[in-house]
Structures
1.
Amino acid sequence: MSFLDKIFNKGPKPIIAESQSRDLSILKAGNRPQGPGVMVAQQDEYYVTASVELGNTTTKCVIMATNLNNSQSYLINKTVNMTRDVRAPKPDEEVFGKTVWGIELSKESVADMIKDTVLESLKKAHVDMDEDLDFVVRSTGVTAGFATTQEVGQMVKALADGCLDAGISHTKMAPAMSSAHLPKRLQKYTLLDNVMFDGAVVSVVPPKGKEVVANEMEGELVTAGIKLGAKWTEVDYRNPCVSLDFGSTLAGRIVNKDEPYASTVGNFLGLAGVISDSLAKGSKQIDQKNGAALDLFDPKLLKKADGKKHQEKAKQYAKEAHELINICKVPEGIDRFGTVPLDAAGAKAAGTCLIGCDVGTNADGLDGLVEIGAKIYEDEGIPTLLATMDHVSANIVYRVLDVAFEENLILDGSILGVTGRAGITGKKPELILEYAQDKFKDVVFVEDGLALGSAIMARCMNSMGTQKNPLGGNQGERCILKKRMQAQGTIE
């Protein structure tokens, strides 16, 4: 910290990795002749992926392009629609799930929503799905309305149907079996002939055995996405690490530093953004059924919320809100916590600790937060309400990490990565950093962690790592390709 920062009581500034936007045609133009007889020194090849995600609050299609020579990734387009706008299931359609706010979903209604979002994104990005697009990864944060972890698979299938309806080939949603099955322009960048995809994503394997929590894929993707996003910073966010995704629901992982693949020793689950949404609904300034905290955000109000008066009051209101919030190691003998289906026995057998966040029992106490939000709005106004949301979210981070430390899950030298709307907006990064800076080697905040993770998943499935700038392995160490090949028996 500088001398002037100490005088003015300023703490360290959060490291926030923001998406770097580029036009695909401009990226590709870099490989073209710059003049008569003049070519660029090195031909770059871009791997273009689409992340298709249906969340409780938003539905996104995020198109990324990754330079396969240096692993630098760029945002081509991000199209965001509100999940609350999904059409209602028709009378002859089966309702197979619902969002955390109770919006009913059918396979067909989800497919229609995804189709429209994908086509909109491709059009805005000027990306040809046949010529430019290489791979599509689907994911969902909607796990609350399912009875079992297996039913989440139906949602992923509905997402695939939407992509197919949009005209995307099924071959762009499944890994290649060998380098010969990839387009010729990509064949020299794949390591499929050396190592096969064995389920590890950026050198981390999921808990052993059957799926132990419904948001497992979400945790896998955000961990990978933060690793990619951190490449835009100086932080070497590799193993050991901790990831936290604050979407409407909570996801994330605690990862050790085993080699060649690290193990997932902890999983986060439960409620996150819906807690702020509930506080926001107390203001009556947003839709009482489908409104979100995002609907209240305004730059001028956020600036006011940073004032000392609002911050001091927000701290007290946050304490009151947290009296309703239950954060703990998930007890044995239950099959759902914070609305998320889980297999507690399976998690124990796999050696994975589940840490959850709930309000009441499976969100039945959210009305209490609405009442607190109403009180704040009536007595103090919107700026204090926004400030309270920041402190409530930051306190969730404190508490879930405290549990993880108490369970001795987090290794010395671990790096914390945070993503999601309820974790990186407003003053939350500063508040989280205040707590975490002495407990972690580094802390990084990443925009669009889930979408970035999908871009990485696409590369992992086709063994397209970048050995000179690895995402996998441990901090400060070399690429683990040789260790992977030894583990798979392709070399001694």
Note: Confidence is low (pLDDT under 50) at residues 1-9, 32-36.
2.
Amino acid sequence: MVKQKNMRGRRVTRKKRKLRKGVLITLIIIGLALISVVGYGSYLYVKANNAVSDSYEDDGREGSDLRDFEVDPNIDNVSVLIIGVDENEHRNNAETSRSDTLMLATFNRDEGSVKLVSIPRDSYVYVPEVGREEKITHAHAYGGPKATIETVENLMDIPVDYYVRVNFHAFVDVVDAIGGIDVDVPYEFKESDSMDKGDAIHLLPGEQSVDGEEALAFARTRKLDNDIERGKRQMEVVNAVADKAASLSSVFQFDDLIAAVGNNMNTNMTFNEMMTFIKYATGGLDIEDMTLEGSDYQPGSTYYWLLDEPALEETKRLLQDHLEISSSSAEESGETYEDSNSEEPTEERTYEEEGSYEEQGDPYQEEEPYQEEQPGETYKEEPYQEEQDPYQEEVPQEETDEYGNPL
């Protein structure tokens, strides 16, 4: 009996030791996993911080002129202007690129909601940088983000607190970094790729998964519809990217995502300011999409999107309410400009666009900005050839007397 009790005691002891060993091994594995996660998270945090810091640029403003205080995105409702420019390595047009995509987002902190307005690139608006009506896409070519921000503030009568500018390469790389996105292609089409090679992308209609180059073609094409439908597709892509990037399945792809954005982005946001926007994604993104309504207008060889004034006023009111600011902010701040749609365009005031599409006949007929060189031919790209170079300031002529001597 004594021997049996001793044997039972040893068995219990061994079981306890085995149990302790199992628990210990499990705790070690969990600990190592936590260390790995924390280490990887710290690595991503540092990398993201460096990427945003490298992308930071001063837009030459001390906050919006339509604000009488410095905003803090931790506590204030703010706005962000997303500028997608038609810049790539082939065009070599960093200094004269136009905004191919313009989206204004307003963020309401208490509601955790976002309103996203697509502004058609051909909208006929007042551009303060040059003091006349132009296509809104030209504002960036005249004065970069600052001129674009001023134009949008004048048009929408709300402050633009921050901006994010990305090029074609960022668009492609971000979609590829998250493993592609799902979109609904409305019709069959062929489109240029990010390096302007004509008809390099061929998509068929229907719901499908697309990579970066295909997503760019989907967002850019307007051969068979118009700029409004293109704007809707661009918002579809933005929503798809935001949803997938916020999902758990993309956590370990953040490394590539950070690299993609950091190499092709400029912003006036600091890293800490950018991190405050994570709150809007934690509870599921609540984004309301809108587009500026209007109508086709082509008085001559140049096509415009003429904004509908009552619809524009309603959109402005919705954004002002979302930011919880009063109307007529521009008037109250003393920053008033000529009304953006005060007069219709005339041929004397049009800007001859070298653009990505023909402005003769069908206003949406795309022009291939890049063509393969043929034997015996030399391809020569001559962007922005005009009677007067809009980017070069006029040099005053020195007055002389009748003998040619300076006065």
Note: Confidence is low (pLDDT under 50) at residues 338-342, 346-401, 403-407.
3.
Amino acid sequence: MTATTNRPTNSAVSTNPASSTNSENSAGAASPVSPVDLSSVDLSAMAVATRAIHAGQEPDAATGAVVPPIYMTSTFKQDGVGGLRGGYDYSRSVNPTRDSFDTQLAAIEGARHALAFSSGLAAIDVLLRSTVKPGDRILLGNDVYGGTYRLLSQVFVPWGVGLDVVDMTDLESVSHALESAAYSYVWVETPSNPLLGITDIAATSEVAHRHGAKVVVDNTFASPILQRPLDEGADAVVYSTTKYIGGHSDVVGGAVVLNDDAIRDRVAFLQNAAGAVPSPFDSWLDIRGLKTLDLRVHRHSENALAVATWLQSRPEVERVWYPGLESHPGHDIAARQMRGGFGGMVSIQLASGEDAAKAFAGATSIFTLAESLGGVESLIEHPAAMTHASVSGTTLEVPSNLVRLSVGVEDADDLIADLDAAFARIAR
């Protein structure tokens, strides 16, 4: 699939005067060693940072380009009817760049399969529509992304799928719910959005499986660097790759990661049938993001811990929600199932109420007032009026005095100084 180029032939190189008179290239020089094909190397035993850079990223066979090309094509030439090259026919169904990202993400997660989507909600939608039917039920945590609740309550419930809400951090409440009704899925966010609740994935998976339910973990806040839910017993993992995986606030995407071959095939069928796929360029942006994910997530976590610790000392702050703090109710569980940090998200409740929260969210300079999270730049928002407005008036309604911080990778002292100045501005 590469164009013919005017590259020099071997004979042209051998007759070059410089090369023919160079004593280092004359008889007696060591024969070159044949390079090892990266595809033959077992990356599974290597560290996640190594897998993130090399899995699915073999240099281009035609040119040797270290970064594989972006296959910006909608269709592929066939060598005779049905004569597909490498199985590629149409980019809604398959595309080499998307395949590269799928391979890379699965390797980082330690999973058999990963499938990329055009958004995180598209990933959730296809996973559920391919595996549930009217009459089935889903058990949802009471602190989740507003878009997830909107999709389930306003799309799946009218379709005939039952939805119940429970405090997913309370294992006794989860167990009681599972004893009261049959569920197809237990839907977990940990850390949750926006209150950073922590669910024990292993314990929840054990009790769910005992009652015949599967467990899906939205791992967006932790990323596969800090937490690997499949290893803890979950059946599937979903991501908004827009966030930490993309990492630069310049791409929208999602992913489903799992080990079950049959469910993977059902998800892949509906993905193709419904067409909820990312473009090749979006896939490449996620590939680029994954390569530096290990570095970025640890910096996010270090900065967030510094910011959260400082916020604890502020009289304007009623409560700080961050699992890295020993005061957090889920700290011990997070310390066990999250490895290498506690993530870059911090939420705070302001003592002076909703108006103060909104004023504070608009008073920063380095923290940008915007929805989303997980980019290199720090963001701030008021969830009740922004990301979680859709859950207003429901059991998932968030506190009106809550402010959510996505702590970026800037200098931590500069971030703290920005928040300090914001407090001073709203106090005037």
Note: The chain has two domains: 96-291, 294-427.
4.
Amino acid sequence: MNCAHCGIPLPEKRRRNQVYCSNSCSALASYYRRKNGQPVPPRWQHPALTADDPVLRAAARHAQELGQISGWNPSTARCVLDGLVTVLTDLPAGERVLLSEVRARPHRWVSRPRLVEVLTDLDLLHDDSAPAIRSWIDRVTGSFAPGYITPVRQWLLVLLDGDTRSRSRSASSIYVYFSCIRPFLDDWAAGYDHLREVTRSDIRAALGPLRGSRRATATSALRSLFGFARKRGLIFSNPTTGLKGRPADFSLLPMADEEIRAIEQLVDDLAGRVIIVLAAENAARTGAIRHLELDDLDMANRRITLAGLRQRLGDLSHRALRRWLRHRRTTWPHTNNPHVLISDKTAHGTGPISQQFVTLRMNHIGCTVDRIRKDRILHEALAARADPLHLSLVFGISHSTAVRYSAVAEHLLSDELAQAPNHDPV
């Protein structure tokens, strides 16, 4: 290709939209064009927007519209179009693009999440990748002795997929369960060749040093492992039969004045303030706050739906949400994320904020959402004179949890009555 003004051949390594060899030729061409009254030439367009393939052309136009709505910068939009050309060129009719090809074929500057988003919207993507947790299961069980590989691996896969009599567990639960019993399995493998040789005394010796929630979680994991192995005939007897975990030690006491003052310091961060007031007024869990959507807010009637439970929106929450929504519209005016709380990363997609987003803001004040939530429920229990039914209806908690809060409230109320001065009638 030659320069559009002087005719000198352009270098091989050039921009795709370069038509002049230098800035001087560009300025001279513009001068003579204005002098001769010639119209301005059309701006350069990505070849994907005018491609002969209708699928590629439709995908490119959708990517362009999505980039304008989500606020992609021009470089990101061009690279996504490059990726579409790479994966859709010579694609047979009716076929879908494999996710492995999306990850491997486009050049390194292509944003894979944006490219996946475009292909998913058009139903052109097929996920052929194996879940990361399955690879993790194969990797962590491969280091065990032969007598431990089969029962432990099958147990983890049943936790992941479930079966006819048990539901599937989340990946985080599987990680926690395995991390609790991994040291026990390593110790037993050093002395026993098979899991069936583990005795009840070995179980008690392993659980002996543990206390509180760690002991309860480890007990549940061991009961699950040996119960599964016994049911599948991989061991002869279950050494955890009748084993009960000690309940976790929950501290259900009102927050101290120092904790309340620390929370009051977090007033400049609008997102952090929304998190705190929803936990303090509505006793919202972290998951409910992260997944709260705009459709769950009824600002006019001061109502909010948290985890499927419709509640009243207090004054603090109403003011905090109004300030945050104003900041949200100003900062990300073109985002199509349906969640109330978004960040610079999630504003370009549709997913919720991460757990780390909440944790970082709560670590700044040295408190947790769960601590504030418990304090809110406990104060309601004190105000309702330890009525568990009232707590269940207001916060949607289970009856056993409501009874536990009511028992603590009764204890605190009895202490107040005992410390109150006794005035005899005159």
Note: Confidence is low (pLDDT under 50) at residues 422-426.
